[in-house]
Amino acid sequence: MSLFDRNFYDFIVHPSPGDPASITGIAMQAKKYGYAGIALVNTPLPENDTKNIPPDFSIYQAAGISCKPAKLRSEIQKYGNKTDIIIVRGGDELLNRAAVETPGLDILLQPEQFNHVHAKLARDRSITIGFDVGSIIRNRGDSRIRELTTMRRNLIYVRKYDLPAILTANATTCYDLRAPREMAALCGLFGMTQKEAADAMSTAPFEIIRKKTPDYIQNGIEVL
Description:
39% of the residues lie in helices and 19% in strands. By secondary structure, the chain is of the alpha/beta class.
């Protein structure tokens, strides 16, 4: 089976607030590119505006949390039972440490000052490390170099500690999306292999959702 003959997901999508057409456009474009689903960050899906969403396409709800480290625990707990996926945008060492120490976090996105201690804690809590591939497209010059350096360093920790990883184009419109093959090609710029990229768009996001199902208890155990 081809690496790209899978169900792919992008779990960090930011459509225009209050614009159902934007959500529909992103969903239809994602389906065209070969995605099986997306997650809308801090954007509810209007119940009466789903008729144009492809029937075999999944839309999940994600909470993107941005706050001071001291408030992370309470914010993550607040969204624990209200959304499918909880995401924290990584940052400095203090923020990353607070994030990986907090139960309930699903994705730590593009942490800048990530280290061995953070990686071990993320592994213990089954936290997925997010790679914002869209930052390679949006940024130029020194900013792009910094993003590539961050992702290259984070990839070392992902490999060393066997951490799950996901990719996102961090799209706000349908024009920001990229097909899985294009995403994998961009990941080559910071050293990720095509297999790692394919897994990060399929296996890893699927596992995040699987762990939220009622039958899931822990790895290797489920209710029959």
